[in-house]
Amino acid sequence: ELAHLLVDALLDKKGIDILVLDIHAQAIFADYFVIASADSEPQLRALMQAALGEAKKQGGRMPKGVEGMPQDGWVLVDFGDVVVHLFSPEKRGYYDLESLWHQGHVVVRMQ
After folding, report:
1. Per-residue model confidence as pLDDT tens digits over 56-110
2. Are 22 and 32 in contact (CB under 8 A)?
């Protein structure tokens, strides 16, 4: 499935603390969140490009939307059923999606 393809792509680009949350019971807009961090703007850009490229190449999927910019420390890539959140460590702590969506089921955690 797409979430697992994305995890592999993010791991390949050295994504940090990758988390897949199953939120289908808590949200009507998506089934999974894929959350990852990057130590620098270039790495954040590489994670974004890897997610977009892998989704298109392996899953035949194009995003419904992309928000944020690597230079801002956060990027959201919306594939509909799967939403990818990429953060600098500071922005990840600020937005704290893990706490906000704590009722979601952890499918994968790669630290």
Report:
1. 998 789 999 999 999 999 999 999 999 999 999 999 999 999 999 999 999 989 8
2. yes
pTM of the model: 0.94
Q: How crowded is residue 72: how many other Cβ atoms within 10 Å of its Cβ? A: 12
Return d(Cα 105, Cα 13) in angstroms, integer: 25
Dihedral sign computed on CA atoms, order 104, 108, 91, 85: negative
At residue 105, what are phi and psi to the nearest 5 degrees? Answer: -90, 125
Which sign does the torsion angle of CA 95, 98, 99, 100 carry?
Answer: positive
- The span from the CA of 77 to the CA of 68, in Å, is 9
DSSP 59-109: H----SEEEEEGGGTEEEEE-SSEEEEEE-HHHHHHH-HHHHTTTSEEEEE
Angle at 56 between CA 51 and CA 57, to 5 degrees: 100
Q: Which residues neighbour 89 within 8 Å (Cβ) at sequence distance 6 or greater?
A: 16, 37, 39
